[in-house]
Design brief:
With about 270 residues, this protein is an alpha/beta fold. The protein is about 35% helix and about 15% strand. It contains 9 helices and 8 strands. It has helices at about 35-40, 65-70, 90-95, 115-130, 145-155, 175-185, 205-215, 245-250, 255-265; strands at about 10-15, 45-55, 75-80, 100-105, 135, 155-160, 190, 220-225. An 8-stranded parallel sheet has the order 1-2-3-4-5-6-7-8. Helix 5 packs parallel to helix 6, helix 7 (about 205-215) packs across helix 8 (about 245-250) and helix 8 (about 245-250) crosses helix 9. It is globular and about 45 Å long. The two termini are about 25 Å apart.
């Protein structure tokens, strides 16, 4: 793996967990995986900044993520999950800690299962005031709806895990048309989550999809390791750089490093 300066490297999708924190029923029970652990994994790769994404198991209780952000003031960023009725004081607290967006998870068994449009529309003015974006984890069949919602709200959308494009997604899939509309509207995409997309290490099947996505999103791409890989066997850990390798192969070193530094800094400033 190519080395980059510590201050430049961003891993834009990780999670932190505390085994003592209350979780929602019907999903996995996480072990403690703290900020110091992921920082230790990331540092040898030249990654000094992390985006902590609120895990679905904690619902709208962002306390574990918030505590981690406050432990390293100004260094990392966060993506929260909030209820439509969240008060401004909580939003301001999250913003001060480094939160720069909210997330809707339409895939997890305990994600927000209802149509998120009403919730998002009620939150839109306050998200805009704070310069926050909206991160989406969806099946690719929902991309057309997201394109319409992005146009309606005027907010920046960020698409988790390659927008749900599976390794075997054909070039003729309708999702590509929706993805083009999202890209034209200013959306960003996360190059992450390959094992969630029917791919196996070394994830070579993802390279053509990454290359095509890059032609659409240009400088609006970020990379995330998705550490600690909650969908994989914890007794067989995935090497930290394994999810970076297909990005490097698909884009080449210069552009790949821009994804992990310059592009990320623009989104999470």
């Amino acid at each position: 793996m190519n080395k980059i300066r510590l201050d430049d490297g961003w891993d834009c999708h990780v999670h932190v967990f505390s085994a003592s924190a209350a979780t929602l029923a019907g999903h996995y029970r996480p072990a403690t995986r703290g900020l110091a652990e992921i920082e230790t994994h990331a540092a040898p790769a030249g990654v000094g900044h992390l985006v902590l994404v609120q895990p679905s198991v904690y619902g709208c209780d962002n306390a574990v993520m918030l505590q981690a952000l406050q432990a390293a003031p100004g260094r990392h960023r966060g993506i929260a999950v909030v209820a439509p009725e969240v008060d401004d004081a909580e939003l301001d607290l999250l913003h001060a800690a480094g939160v720069r967006g909210i997330r809707f998870n339409r895939v997890s068994p305990v994600g927000r299962s209802a149509d998120p449009a009403e919730a998002l529309l009620s939150l839109t003015p306050r998200l805009r005031e704070r310069g926050w974006h909206v991160q989406w984890y969806v099946d690719r069949a929902e991309l057309a709806q997201l394109a319409r919602l992005q146009a309606q709200t005027g907010l920046i959308f960020v698409l988790d895990h390659l927008a749900g494009l599976m390794a075997d997604t054909p070039d003729t899939d309708p999702a590509w048309h929706a993805l083009e509309a999202l890209a034209r509207g200013g959306a960003w995409i996360k190059l992450s989550g390959w094992y969630r997309l029917n791919a196996r290490p070394p994830y070579a099947l993802m390279q053509p999809l990454i290359a095509r996505v890059a032609t659409l999103f240009k400088t609006r791409m970020v990379w995330g390791s998705d550490w600690p890989h909650t969908s994989l066997d914890p007794t067989d850990p995935l090497p930290y750089d394994a999810t970076w390798a297909p990005v490097l192969q698909a884009l080449g070193s210069e552009r790949a490093e821009a994804v992990r530094s310059d592009y990320a800094q623009t989104l999470y400033r």
